[in-house]
Amino acid sequence: MTEAEITTKQRTTRRFDTILGVVGRALIAAGVLMLLFVGYQLWGTGLSEQRAQADLKRTFSSQLPAIPSYGDPVTRIEIPKIGVNKIVVAGVDFKALEKGPGLFDGSPLPGQVGNVAIA
Fold it and tell me: Residue 56: which of 26, 28, 76, 29 has the closest Cα?
């Protein structure tokens, strides 16, 4: 092998190492971003819902409107065995579900005949 072939091979190896370094750093950055997003999904949205539930519990009363509008409290759902004690709101759009469990539109209200669908 001549000296020119050796330096060409060294340049190719360095270029390959540089590309691998850049790809590696990009993959690590993507992994960190995904972990941050999962953390937000697990804890960030839970904190937001807790604040909304605290507000709903303060304003919840036994005198509910006959036809609640989206985001209004409808009823309280309690399941002691699994530790659920939440105020159910009307609607299943994003804004309503940020507050807590949502009652599907067209589903019977508590105390009415039929199957209740809660998301």
Answer: 76
Find, among 61, 114, 113, 117, the residue nearest to 87 by Cα.
61
Query: Which residues are within 8 A (CB) of 25 and not within 5 positions of it... i.e. 6 or more apart?
Result: none
- Full-model pTM: 0.59
- Return the half-sphere exposure (C-beta side, CA atoms, 13 A cut-off) of residue 21: 6
pLDDT of residue 11: 77
38-48, pLDDT tens digit by residue?
988 888 777 88
58-75 tens-digit pLDDT: 777 655 656 777 778 888
* Count of alpha carbons within 13 angstroms of residue 102, beta-carbon side: 18
* 23: pLDDT strictly greater than 80: yes
**For 9-119, where are the E strands, in sequence order?**
73-79, 84-90, 102-103
**CA distances (Å), 2 to each of 5, 8, 15, in order?**
5, 10, 20
